[in-house]
């Protein structure tokens, strides 16, 4: 089968890989219906993370082709969605809703789902079957649930977005944009999108942003304060992962407010004194997408949300290298790979 391998920064190739087989009785094999390139795949692509011949991809939807002897909740033929972290969904951490830190967690990036087939470990805990075979036009949205929607949703929940709250969102990539959608669904009264790109501002408004701030850093913080009677937002979503974005998020939050941070942290160091004075709640990390999957799948199935519109470029798997280039050069927000 064909799959994406990253040989080094900027060097992505679609190559012949071993067809996956059942290794553990808890495994399932799926035939991918679609996969995609994640903003976090750009870290190694740009040389910020080490990479040397790694299979790529951790987002996936597809049809089960084979299951191990111990698998009971999905069967061959089921259309399934899973999270970017495989989890047993039974340990204490999972039951508390933190499946991305399951005691048996397997990061799906290690499997590499930018491929025709993938082995899904811990299939019972990881995969959620859709109510039936989806219409073709639902596939991008279901794929979004696998990571970017689930991550944006967790960020909004971690930031305690809800009725009566003003939510600010730092980062206008796919996760930030879907954090806006999540905040809106959770009932937020006002949503401030921090973005300086016209096309992303438009999508932000479509998803529910009421205000746009195009300043960054301290100027962006000032603007959020002006919009909130000098207090800052109740809830702030951080969806970038840099020092600047994290501090922008913390400083945009009012005393007693909540920051939900989901941008993969790169060299972020928090100043203790400022944090002490800020009196904000910080909660974040790799999103436990599995917690939200049943609800998100139903919202998509019922056509109540349309997160798939974040995909603004669709390419066949064979052209994955062009997809990476397009995202790296910001010609695309999110690239869907058809398999
Ligand atoms: Zn677990």
Description:
By secondary structure, this protein is an alpha/beta fold. It has two domains: 2-147 and 288-338, Alpha-Beta Complex (Quinone Oxidoreductase, Chain A, domain 1); 151-284, NAD(P)-binding Rossmann-like Domain (Rossmann fold, 3-Layer(aba) Sandwich). It is built from twelve helices and 18 strands. It has helices at 42-45, 92-95, 123-126, 139-145, 148-158, 174-185, 198-207, 217-227, 243-251, 272-278, 289-301, 320-328; strands at 2-8, 11-16, 28-37, 54-55, 61-67, 79-82, 85-86, 106-107, 117-120, 127-129, 166-170, 190-194, 211-213, 233-238, 253-261, 281-284, 313-316, 335-338. Strands 3, 5, 6, 9, 10, 17 and 18 form a seven-stranded mixed sheet that branches. A six-stranded parallel sheet has the order 13-12-11-14-15-16, sandwiched between helices. The longest helix has 13 residues, at 289-301. The model has no long low-confidence stretch (mean pLDDT 97). The structure holds zinc ion. This is IMP dehydrogenase.
């Amino acid at each position: 089968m064909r799959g994406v391998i990253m040989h080094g920064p900027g060097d992505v190739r679609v190559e012949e890989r071993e067809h996956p087989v059942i290794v553990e009785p808890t495994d399932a094999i799926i035939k991918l219906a679609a996969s995609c390139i994640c903003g976090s795949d750009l870290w190694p692509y740009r040389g910020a993370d080490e990479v040397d011949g790694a299979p790529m991809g951790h987002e996936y939807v597809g049809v089960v082709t084979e299951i191990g002897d111990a698998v009971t909740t999905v069967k061959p033929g089921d259309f399934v969605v899973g999270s970017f972290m495989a989890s047993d969904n039974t340990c204490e951490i999972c039951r508390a809703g933190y499946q991305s830190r399951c005691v048996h967690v397997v990061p799906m990036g290690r499997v590499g789902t930018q491929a025709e087939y993938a082995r899904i470990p811990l299939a019972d805990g990881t995969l959620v079957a859709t109510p039936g075979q989806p219409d073709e036009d639902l596939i991008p949205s279901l794929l979004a649930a696998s990571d970017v929607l689930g991550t944006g949703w967790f960020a909004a929940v971690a930031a305690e977005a809800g009725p009566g709250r003003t939510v600010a969102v730092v980062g206008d990539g796919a996760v930030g944009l879907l954090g806006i959608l999540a905040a809106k669904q959770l009932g937020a009264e006002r949503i401030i999108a921090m973005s300086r790109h016209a096309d992303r501002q438009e999508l932000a408004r479509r998803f529910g942003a009421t205000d746009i701030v195009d300043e960054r850093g301290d100027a962006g913080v000032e603007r959020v304060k002006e919009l909130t009677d000098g207090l800052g937002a109740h809830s702030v979503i951080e969806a970038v992962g840099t020092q600047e974005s994290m501090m922008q998020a913390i400083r945009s939050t009012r005393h007693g407010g909540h920051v939900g941070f989901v941008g993969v942290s790169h060299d972020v160091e928090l100043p203790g004194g400022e944090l002490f004075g800020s009196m904000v709640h910080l909660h974040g990390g790799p999103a436990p997408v599995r917690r939200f999957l049943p609800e998100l799948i139903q919202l998509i199935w019922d056509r109540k949300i349309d997160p798939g519109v974040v995909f603004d470029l669709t390419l066949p798997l064979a052209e994955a290298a062009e997809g990476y280039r397009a995202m790296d050069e910001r010609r695309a927000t999110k690239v869907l790979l058809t398999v």
